[in-house]
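User: I'm new to structure prediction. If I give you an amino acid sequence, what do you actually give back? Let's try with this one:
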Amino acid sequence: MEWHYSFTDQCPLLGVKIVVRNPRRKPAQRKLRSLAVLPVLALAATAAGCAEEVNTAGNTQAGDKVELINEGQLTVCTHLPYEPFQFRNESGKTVGFDVDLVDLVAEDLGVQQKLVDTSFEGIETGQVFEAGDCDLAAAAITITDDRDRVMDFSQGYFDADQALVVQSGSDVAGLEDLDGKVLGVQQGTTGEEYAQENKDKYGYQTRQYEDLELLQQGVQNGAVAAGINDNSVLLYATKERDALEVSTEFDTGEQYGIAVADGNGALQAKVDEIIDAAKQDGRYDDIYKKWFGEAPPSDDESSGDGGEGSDAGSK
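Assistant: Good question. You get back a string of structure tokens that encode the predicted 3D arrangement of the chain. For your 315 residues, that looks like this:
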């Protein structure tokens, strides 16, 4: 459960907004947070007469009413661009696979989806939920143990692996060809983790880029010898960019999940319900075909062998 005590409106002289959070946490986290909020609680008690309480469902269960931070809106944190999952089209509208999928959730709730573009680091560390910036996050987020400690995930809705993007005609066929060279990575992604785990073995250095577009530009202009990211986005991008090609893929077996605040079981269950329904009634297949031009792979195809193996994830 999360309470927002806002004194700014009812107590203009105080001009303070106090946020007291009590989400579902691990024991050590709960202890640290309890100590941290003591001064806040003291101030809250002083001004309790003019406090306004707002419930944003930080600790709910499946079947509970879904509480949203903004009435009539499903506020969704994402990171642009990550085509075709979320990006701005020529008219400036944010579109993509994830956008269409989350629209199904918003439709079921009878609200509109509102997108908030933020850093991927803020999403994958759970900071956007700590700050109360969004109800959920949809940004082709790979489910990992570290991330699951600070947020909750829906069921996996998209399978992905890692891939290496290079200039067309490059002699870089794999990581073994990067000795003494520079590999571009996107900040905060598990592709970056994969690169860090293997750089001593293969003798390359890494260079961070804030987003996928900048990473691809770095490869195209020769600032880096190659870039690593999810195979889905790199294969999609190289269809439109003749100057780039995917030289290899790494069988890493990740899944994307839609994230909610740690403990928000009501919204988590609702997202799972919609994903299940969409896969059953064909809406998921329609979205997949819209953005990838083909039906989603069968379970057998998605579990097939890929390139160089790893336990690392994707974005």
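You can read the tokens as a compact description of the fold. Here is one thing that stands out. Confidence is low (pLDDT under 50) at residues 1-55, 303-313.
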